[in-house]
Amino acid sequence: MAAKKIKPPKGTRDLYPEDLLRQRYITNAWRDASIRCGFEEIAGPTFETTELYSVKSGEGILGELFQAFSGKGGSEALEEIAAKGKAKYALRPEFTPTLARMYAAHAKQLPKPCKWFTAGPYFRAERPQRGRLREFLQWNIDVVGLPSDEATPASKAQMDSEIIECGAQLFESLGLNSKDCKFLLNDREQVVQLLNSQGIADSQIEAALQILDKQSKLPIKALIDLTRAAGIDSPDFESYLGRSNQDKIVLLNAEDDETPIMRIKGNASIAKEHLPILTAISKRGLSNWCELNNSIVRGLAYYTGSVFEAIADGERAVAGGGRYDNLIELFGGPPTPACGFGMGDVVLGNLLDDKGLMPTGVELMEAVAKPQASIRPVAFVVPNGDEANEPLVHTLTANLRRGIESEFWLSREGRKPWNNDRYTVGPMHTRISYKSTRNLGKLRADAEKQHARFFVEIHADNKVELTNMDTREPITSDTHGSFSVDPAAENYVGHAIAQQMQ
Amino acid sequence: MAAKKIKPPKGTRDLYPEDLLRQRYITNAWRDASIRCGFEEIAGPTFETTELYSVKSGEGILGELFQAFSGKGGSEALEEIAAKGKAKYALRPEFTPTLARMYAAHAKQLPKPCKWFTAGPYFRAERPQRGRLREFLQWNIDVVGLPSDEATPASKAQMDSEIIECGAQLFESLGLNSKDCKFLLNDREQVVQLLNSQGIADSQIEAALQILDKQSKLPIKALIDLTRAAGIDSPDFESYLGRSNQDKIVLLNAEDDETPIMRIKGNASIAKEHLPILTAISKRGLSNWCELNNSIVRGLAYYTGSVFEAIADGERAVAGGGRYDNLIELFGGPPTPACGFGMGDVVLGNLLDDKGLMPTGVELMEAVAKPQASIRPVAFVVPNGDEANEPLVHTLTANLRRGIESEFWLSREGRKPWNNDRYTVGPMHTRISYKSTRNLGKLRADAEKQHARFFVEIHADNKVELTNMDTREPITSDTHGSFSVDPAAENYVGHAIAQQMQ
Fold first, then answer.
1. Where do the CATH 3.30.930.10 domains begin and end in chain B?
2. So what CATH class is B374-500?
3. Which residues of A touch B116 (CB under 8 A)?
4. What is the ipTM of this complex?
5. pLDDT band at B263; cut points 50, 70, 90
6. Interchain CB distance below 8 Å, A91 and B47
7. Do B41 and A21 touch (CB under 8 A)?
8. Which residues contact B418 (CB under 8 A, 6 or more apart)?
C-alpha cells in the first residue's frame, strides 16, 4: 500500500518555524502588555464539561462546539452519547466560563480584585473563513472582584478602563495608533433603558439586543424581518435600527464644557454623567483611543454594563468584551463585579500584515527575543491622600507602563548609561491599589505583599517620593531633591527607577 | 435554583498565578535549552484526525484517546459515530505523528536537517495518578532529515547526541546534575539481533519488545506469563527476562582501552563498536550523563535504532525517545532519518519539587522573567578542514550553548563590564553544520542563510578565528591576536563574542 499523506483537520494550522515566530511575536506582546499593566497569568483545561457551557447558554450552544469523550468507554459509551445527543466534554470556545468557575471555586481566599490574563487555544465548530479558524489562540484579560466596600460605579469604571488601557498599550507596542484602532464603548444598561422607552417588553430585550448586535452585518430589511419574527412590535425600534451608528456628537469636557474630549456616535440621550467610565478613561489619557458608540451591544448574553469592541480602520472587530457582574454567581460564587476582554491571534495577525507592521527575517527574530516584562512589580503608585493628586496616579502609571525614550544622560554617581546615545526608560510593570484607604502604611503593606520593588507616592506640585522596598530606604534626587511625574523632566521618577535597577 | 459549582474535568488542572509561574519556569527552560542548541519552534493542531493515529498503531489506540467531533452535525452525526465506533477527530496524545505529517507535507523544500521543538498540551484517556494527568504539557525536540549524501551512521549518531545534549543542557539549567539524571541508551537493532539469537521469530519480535519494555514494572512471573500468552517459545528469552538490567560492565575508552568512559548495564555482547552514538556522546563531553542499558526498548512501535530514557534517581522516567527512520515514509514522505524525544511537565515538576529545585516567591518571579535565548543564532562553529579539530567543534559548541561565569574583566577598548564583580558569558544560541563539506565558503554561506551573527572557525592548537557576519570583518584579540576554545583562558572566544554583543 502506498503511504498517503494525511491532512490536518480543516480550519487548523501547521505552524512551521517562520509561522511560529509570527505567532510568538503576538503572544509575547500580549504577555508583555498584560504583565506591565499588573495582570497575572493563569490557565485552565483545554476541554471542559459540556455542562459548563450549557448552564450559561442552554444546550443550543453545544451545536457550535467541538465535543469530546474518552475513547475508553467503547461502543456502549458511544451509544449513550447518541442517545443523550451530547458528549460529556467540549473543547473550550472561550475562556470566561472557565475563569468564572476558577474564581467561584476559591472566591474567599483570592485577592480583590484578581487581575488575570491567559492566552491559549480555543475551538469553534464553524465554517473557516478569513479571520475565523476552527482552532485559534485567544488572549483574555479580566479584572474580577473588588474590596467589599468598593463596588462603586467609580471603582467599576476603573476596572473597565484598566482593561482598555491594557488593550491600548498592546496596540501601541505593536505600532498601531489611535487612528488605526478605536475602542467603541457602550453601556448595556443604557441600551436597555432606551429599548424600554421604545416600548419593548423585558421578555423581548435579549432578542432586541441580539438584533442590534447584527446591525453592522445585515441590511435594514433583514433586521426588520428579524424584529417581527421575534414578535417585537415597536415602530420606534424599527426606525432606530441601522440609525444608531449615524448621529455624531462631540462630548465636551465636564469642567469647561468646551474642550472636546470624545466623539459619540449614536443616541444623544447617552449623556456623559451616565458613563463614569469616561472620567476614568480621561484620567488615564485614553480619550483619543475611545469613542462612545450606541450600536455596540455584543452578542454574548452575560454582559451587564459596559460593553466595548476594538475596531480597526472603522470596520473590523479585533477584540471585544465588557462587564459581567452576574456570571461568578451563576457558577456558584458570591456576587462579584467583573470585566474583561478577549482578542484572537488570527484577526490581529491579519491586521498587522495589512498595515506592514509584522516584522520579518532577522527583525522578527530579534523582536521575539526582546527582554520580557518583569513578573515582579517594579513600581507601586499611590496618591498621598490629597484627592487632587489622584488623576496623576493614572497618568504616571500609564507612562511607567508604556516606557519612554529620553535624550538625558544619567551621569550621576559617575555612571554612564550603557546606551551612549539615548537613554531608554523601558516599560515597567506598574501596579496601583483598588482600595479606598488613603493610609500610606496600609498601601505600603500591600505593595510589600505584592513584592513591588519601588513605592511611588505622588505629592502636590507633581512631586514624587520614592522608596526602595528591598532596603526600605527613601531615594532622593542628587540634582533636584525630589522626583517629578513629568517624563520630559530630567528628574522624572522613571529615570530614577531605571537607574536604580541597573 | 441555587447555582452549583461546576468542577473541571478529572485529571486536568486549574492553574492560578503561582501554579502558572511554576509551569512557565519549566516551559521557559524548555524553550531556552532548545533555542540555544539550535532547534526552531513549530506547532501543530491540538486535535487531529483519528486516522493519523490509527494508520500507525491500528484502531486499538483510539480507546486510549479522547475523541472529538463537531457538534454541528446534530443527532445524525452522533448515530454515525456510534455505528462506526469512532469519531472523526482525536485530541493529540503525542506530537510525533503530527511532526511526521508536517515534514512529509513539505519534505522537498525543508532544510536538511530540520531541528524542531514544540511545547503544548497533550491528552490521554487514562486514570489520573501521580505524574500522569489526562491533560499535560509536553516538550518535544526532533532532528529530522539529513543532506542526501550524509545519512551515515556517524551523522545519525550526531543527531542522536544533539538530542541528548539538549536534554542534558535542560537538566543543567534547572540545577540537576549527571548524578540526579542519567540518559539510559540502547539500540533496538541490537536487541532485535539478540532476540533473533534467542530463537524468536520475526513475527514475534514486536511482542517480545513490548514484554521487555515492561521489565521494570512487572514481576518475572507476570513477564513469563505474557511471553507464553504471546506464543513465544524461547527458554533463552525467558531466562534473559528480568536479567537484562543486572550485569554491569564498564566500557573502556577506544583509544587507550583503559579510561572508563561509560557504564553499561545488561548484555555484554553490546560492544562499543556497535554503537557509534558513544563516540558522538564522548566528543560532546556527555559521557557522564549517559549509561548503556540493555533493558531499555521503549513501548512505541515506531522506533528503529537508538532508544533512550532519561531516568532520575535510578527509577523515574523523566523523558524518552529514539530514532524513527521509517515514520516519515509511512506518512507519505521520502525515506528520512529522524530522532527525537519528549518530556512532560508533570513528572519534571514533581522531580524539581522533590529536589528542592523549584524556586518560590520573588525568586520564582525573577527566574521566569530572565532574558531568553536569542532566536537569531549567535555563533556558527565549524572546523577548518583538519579532521583532528572536529571534536573541538562539539566541545566549544557545548560550552557556548551552556555559558560560563568568569572572573575576568573585559577592559579592552576602555569598556568596563556592566557587572562590576564577575563577567558572565551567558548561554549562546550556537549552531553547527551537518554537511560533509569542509569548504569554508560553503559553510559561511550556510551561516549567513541562518542569520548567524558570528562565524567561528577552529584551527590547530585550540586557536579560533572569529568573523562578524554583519560587517564581514574579522575580529582579533588585542592581547593575544587570536582567540582560544578554552573557557578558562582570558582570550576565550566566548568572552570576545559577549563583548561584541554589548
1. 20-367
2. alpha beta
3. 17
4. 0.91
5. low
6. yes
7. yes
8. A418, A502, B502
